[in-house]
Fold:
Amino acid sequence: MAQQDTDQQRAGVLPVDDEGYVIDTEDCEEREAAWRERGTSRPITVVGNPVLHKECKDVTDFGDELQQLVADMFASQRTAEGVGLAANQIGVDLKVFIYDCPDDEGVRHTGVVCNPRLVELPAEKRRLDDSNEGCLSVPTAYAPLARPDYAEVTGQDEQGNPIRVRGTGYFARCLQHESDHLYGYLYIDRLSKRERKDALRQMAENEPRYPVVAND
Structure:
C-alpha cells in the first residue's frame, strides 16, 4: 500500500484510502495554489448559454490542453469565490469539474474529476438535506433543494487514472451539483416552476460580483 501511494504521488495522482477512495484532504492549500497560479481566470457563463444546457463531451485527451484548462478553472473559481466549477461554466464543452469545498465538519476537499458518474445510492444512504443551493452560473440566486447528504462519484483524474470520490453534507451537494452541470442540468432545473422563477428574479435584480459572459 505504501509503495502504491508513492507511485501515485510521483505521477501527480492523489493517494487512496483502504477502500479505494481518493484522499483529497491533504495539502489542499498547496495543491490549489499550484493549479491556480498556472491558470488564467475566465468569465463565467450564465443560465441561457447553450453550453450549459446540453451534455458535455467526454474527456479523451489528458495532455497539456487539459492541464491548462484545469489551471484556468482553479483560477476562475478563486475569482468567483466558488467551491466547485464545471468546464462548461467557462464555456468549455468537456466533462471535467474541479472542487475546493469543505464538508459539514469543516474539512477541506480539493480535486479534479473528469468524466464523472454519480453512484446510485441504496435507500438506506439516501437521507435528504434540503439546504439552500446556489450556482455561479445563476449569480446572486439561492433556493432550498433536497439532495442526498452523501454522494459518491467515479471518474478519472487529470492524468486519466480511474478515481472514486465520496463526500458528505455540503461537499456531497457540491459533487452532485457539479456532476449535474456536465450533463446539462442546473440546480434550478430541479426546482418547481415557482421556485425557478423566483431564482431567476433574484438573478435579474442583482449584480454578479465576478465577470460573466453576456447571453446575446
